[in-house]
Write a structure and sequence with these properties.
With about 170 residues, this protein is mainly beta. Helices cover about 5% and strands about 45% of the residues. It folds into two domains: about 5-90, RimM (Elongation Factor Tu (Ef-tu), domain 3), CATH 2.40.30; about 100-160, SH3 type barrels (Roll).
């Protein structure tokens, strides 16, 4: 099978009609659109293709149901599994847009060349993404992905160059 990419994790069931609560790891709403093919992947079992039957947002989480999984008993075994898409399902991105997997793991540098740390996580709180940078012997640094701060992103070299706004490094 093609290389696969994580778009979410099933963290629990919801109700009795086969819905699951998903922690989303994608910006693409269409990943959970009815008819979308996803693959359920677990360390313990063989992967399973799933077709989205319905999707809605509830209390900040995605609630998804799948065709042929009409009850809580059907989806209970899916808990803690990842929802993934194949490489050929990847969308061509615009300039200055990146997949999370391209950013996580990149080293972050100041324009002076000083290394600050490595991106360990991406938060999506609202208007712009926030990159969480793990720094040695310091608290994590939160970098807003905005043009005045992020000057260059090179996923091939796994490097990001920033010009921090006042107070960002404090």
């Amino acid at each position: 099978m093609d290389k696969m990419y994580n778009v979410g994790k099933i963290i629990n069931t919801h109700g009795i009609k086969g819905e699951v609560k998903v922690h989303r790891i994608t910006d693409f709403e269409e990943r959970f659109a009815p008819g979308q093919l996803l693959y359920w992947v677990s360390d313990k079992q063989e992967s399973k293709p799933l077709v989205v039957r319905s999707h809605r947002i509830h209390k900040g989480f995605d609630l998804v149901s799948f065709e042929d999984y009409p009850s809580i008993n059907d989806v209970e075994p899916l808990k803690n599994g990842k929802l993934m898409v194949t490489e050929d399902e990847q969308v061509e991105l615009e300039d200055h847009e990146f997949y999370f997997r391209e950013i996580i793991g990149c080293k972050v540098y100041l324009e002076s060349g000083e290394e600050l740390g490595e991106v360990k996580e991406i938060l999506t709180p609202g208007a712009n993404d926030v990159w969480v940078v793990k720094r040695p012997q310091q608290a994590d640094l939160l970098i807003p992905y905005i043009e005045p701060v992020v000057k260059k992103v090179d996923p091939a070299q796994e490097t990001i160059i920033i010009d921090p706004i006042e107070g960002l490094l404090d």
